[in-house]
């Protein structure tokens, strides 16, 4: 099977869903003739026409608000934030409008929008082109949040997000766009929301991660293997809804939990996972729950600073050793 | 296009019904029976009725927090609205939200959130949907002059102008954003003047003159339905009550209030209807009685409607789990 890049998988998912369902359309900044800042919608205008791949003014609140309005009228809009960082400008529409609609109407309406958010650092983007703001939205009721790590999930999760009747935030990691390739099965399939994926089996410690952190975790597992440390890696894929069972299962198996993400540490999603483990699996833990995440600072620009800021395999190795050391 | 006698009387009925409903709600609030925040539109009724009367079911409306008349004219059940204010299980929100933060999807009525102006963006999305499907429907957004200071107002009108969307933006300029007077809200003379910056027409209309509102809306509807794009209609008006029922509105003078009260849209319309020999004392009494009965029925219904239970608190956050295929 030919290999597909992560970004191509995103583009393929969008195109196939737009071919399959005429209610699906894309709107965002520079998504039209230009094809999107990263090229995800290249050729879409030619194929689908002006309105189904609609350039908007620089108006994130409008982009999300208009997506909501079109969704209420039966469309299934996919809104692109040029960078996930800019989603703050559409925060109210997402959290107070999209996330509350079904509840406020007591189930009589739904809001099937997808907001694509190119996120993540490691690309020299500095404070405003590197953020991972998923934590804000995981905290907000009514929003689903996914973050693929591999091309097949990039495609499958986007398809599932588009087909879902609730608002879904789709965090696609820019660092992975062209660096990660993988086999993506053909055909009409989707990755169910709310199902984690065990990407490496191991016996000694569980590393629970999502997005770019999954790749750091896998690299860390390789680094630890020669020392005889067997690391299991769980890719959450979907943060809301969360596959809690998969989290509990892996930690019950290994007795050690390291949680890794690229979002900031403080009140990041790792804190939620840690709390679940503390509440429901404290009896099986043989060491402290350890989190690895970005430093609690704005994301710095200079390479040396950014490297210090972000999680990486070395930091994860240290975290695994920390939780294992506590056992002895 | 002229209104027939029956239509004029219909509009008059909705004015009276709005007034009667809100006066009753105000009393119920003071009695502690209605616990929701009550944002009265008394004094402003001509705008909701004059703009909504004659809209189609398919037309999308996004009423703001004191636009009861939009709900009523669009056909939302007074019982469901009253139950909403009571927080009952049979209210529009099933008790999950209060006031007019609700709607009736089947009638394309979508109420506001408390982030005033946010619904203007949502309205443009509905209009975009109509345009994409080449449907002759219109999306109407309501907001006060206060909300016109929000970025969402600018983003939405700008976008609607760019794509000549079938949108009508109805600004109810009642001179106060809660307590903040107009001179502290904007430096231009009229909210409607801002339309120039978005490339479409802005109209100023006497908001307490229901016929002026109706005629201005007709022109805007014609423009929207024929692809000529959006219109911003600024209706000058005044809210008689405070921002909400707890607010005694001490920030304005009695003289100002009385001056505006003398411009009450209901007697003003009555004068016209009497001149046209459409309204007699008898008809006036009948309309008042009918409105009173509808409101009494709604109150009776809401008083005895069931409350939601604790088990309902966590329902309808998300839809049922879906198969991804």
Please, could you describe this protein's structure?
- The complex is a heterodimer of chains A (328) and B (325).
- By secondary structure, chain A is α/β, with parallel strands linked by helices.
- Chain A has 2 domains: 3-183, Rossmann fold (3-Layer(aba) Sandwich), CATH 3.40.50.970; 197-325, Rossmann fold, CATH 3.40.50.920.
- Chain A has 11 helices and 14 strands.
- Chain A has a 7-stranded mixed β-sheet with strand order 3-2-4-5-7-6-12, with helices on both faces.
- In chain A, helix 1 packs parallel to helix 6, helix 7 (212-224) crosses helix 11 and helix 8 (244-254) packs across helix 9.
- Chain A starts with a strand and ends with a helix.
- The mean pLDDT of chain A is 97.
- Chain B has helices spanning 5-30, 45-52, 68-74, 78-85, 118-132, 151-162, 210-225, 254-261, 265-275, 281-304, and strands spanning 60-62, 103-104, 109-110, 139-144, 167-173, 176-177, 180-181, 201-206, 231-236.
- Chain B is 42% helix and 11% strand.
- Chain B is built from 10 helices and 9 strands.
- In chain B, helix 1 packs across helix 10, helix 2 (45-52) runs parallel beside helix 3 and helix 5 (118-132) packs parallel to helix 6.
- Chain B has one domain (5-303): Rossmann fold (3-Layer(aba) Sandwich), CATH 3.40.50.
- In chain B, strands 1-4-5-9-8 form a 5-stranded parallel β-sheet, with helices on both faces.
- The longest helix of chain B is centred in the N-terminal third of the chain and has 26 residues, at 5-30.
- The mean pLDDT of chain B is 96.
- By secondary structure, chain B is α/β, with parallel strands linked by helices.
- At the A-B interface, helix 3, helix 4 and helix 6 of A face helix 5 and helix 6 of B.
